[in-house]
Amino acid sequence: MKTYKDLHKPASEFENRSDYLNHELQIMKPKRFRLNLPGRDFSFEWEDLVPAFAGTVGIIAMYSSVMMAWAEGLTEAWSHVSLGKDFAIEVTRVEMLIPALLFVIFASGFFNPRANLAGNHGPMIPLIASIALAGAHPLALAILIGVFGLLLSFFKGGSRLVNLTSKGVAGGLLIFLGFSGGLSQIKTIQTWSMGLEHATAHSGSLGYLGLVILGITIVVYSLLARIGKRWLSIPGCAIIALITALIGGAGFDLHFTTEMGIPNLSPIYWWGSTEEGWMLGLPNMQHFVASLPFAILAVAMWSPDFLGHRIFQEMNYPKKSEKVLMDVDDTMTMCSFRQMVGTALGGGNITSSWGTYMIPAAIAKRPIPAGAILLGLMVMGVAILGSPMDVAIWPPVRCIALLVGVFLPMIEAGIQMVKESACAQAAGICIFAAMVTNPVLAWALAMFLDNNGLIGDLERPKRLSVIDRYVIPLSILIICIIAMLAVGMLEGTYGISGYL
């Protein structure tokens, strides 16, 4: 059997760049849990820089948001705990160094290129304050998420749930998540611009600047999509947003406060006592009990999250490139280990499939490994340098990168999936249920209804077994309801209003 090295051809032998990238995807044969080497099993292309850059910007924004939420929530929940911005930055740098080396560069880059990078669980960020107030412990939560995730991946539960989700349900889920997430970023950048003032003697509002940046972004994104270069949208739009904000007079709002250095990498410092690090000490049984429903909920959210990322590959990769599609169960295994190891070393991230990397990579028609290695190096470099973190989390850069790199492509992909009337019906029910409750419960409910012919394709139930029609969807629905009741998510605060 011919290897990738045998089948590889230089780009000059193809009529255009797209044909060359398609051929690369079709000839790759990544090895699972075995060493994959550049040149022999995959190659580096300049397109890999795009998802690497996008993933770096996205993860800085996500990690910093998570750690600030933990700091605020734990400070409010525990009388002896006082955590602030400095703590959040240091924990963010811990999460960017060790996990990037172990689970991005080595794991997804060299040893299992079919496992997507273990990134951040965005939908859980609004819940972190509630998690802290409920008496949960970050390390207890991480251990439970890791154990549940490993069990689900061992029994191939992740891939089975993906197969049980129809295009209509998946499309509706993508549309809702893209729409609600996009609204959140638009509100953030508008709030930021309304709070600006001229750094001159005559103070005045710069509220118009957010609208200008958003308008320019629409034009640039549309032009890139028109010429088939949409994969350049994150670096292109983020840089243009940065320049526009500086020209518009917002430069005084950009402060470089993060110094160069390496954070404390000793787990004993972070978890050893109630006077250093997290100031919580090691978790006890009460912490595990308080963390249990949130851990169940986080793992239940993984399948629709993974599904959305794999869909982008399927929509943008050519035929006969199935061998490079992300493996849902392997990704779940990697996320589980990364969750436990990263937190044990002092981190606080809640892990899921890395969307701000996978979506641009799929659009750029690039497989996982090369971009993963570049991204890991970028993330580690930023964590050590410090000051680039200040630029990446600045609202005009962070919000525009997430808008054009994640949420707009999600809306487009969802709309493309909803082509038939049956799919449109399932998508509509999924979106409506998400507006009333939340995306995870909407996915579980719509999947149950769709697999039983109550919505969507009436022929679909005939192709499914009794277990796939009733047992699995109903079990998932019940688990989601119980978990959400336990953590107070069915109070009408997590739908669209939760993003605003």
Straight-line distance between termini: 54 Å
DSSP strand content:
under 5%
SS content category: mainly alpha
Query: What is the overall pLDDT average?
Result: 87
**Computed CA radius of gyration, to the nearest angstrom:** 22 Å
What is the general shape?
globular
SSE string, helices as H and strands as E: HHHHHHHHHHHHHHHHHHHHH
Fill in the keyword field for this structure.
single chain; 500 residues; mainly alpha; globular; disordered C terminus
Short description:
By secondary structure, the chain is mainly alpha-helical. It has 21 helices and no strands.
How would you characterize this protein structure?
Keywords: Membrane, Transmembrane, Transmembrane helix. The chain crosses the membrane at residues 49-70, 91-111, 131-155, 167-186, 206-224, 231-252, 288-307, 368-386, 392-411, 423-449, 469-490. It comes from Pseudotamlana haliotis. It holds the Pfam family DUF3360. This protein has 500 residues and is mostly helical. The chain has a domain at 48-169 and 262-419. It is built from 21 helices and no strands. It has helices at 4-7, 17-27, 49-77, 85-111, 128-133, 138-154, 157-163, 167-194, 208-226, 233-247, 267-271, 285-316, 328-344, 355-363, 368-385, 387-392, 395-417, 421-436, 439-451, 466-487, 496-499. The chain starts with a helix and ends with a helix.
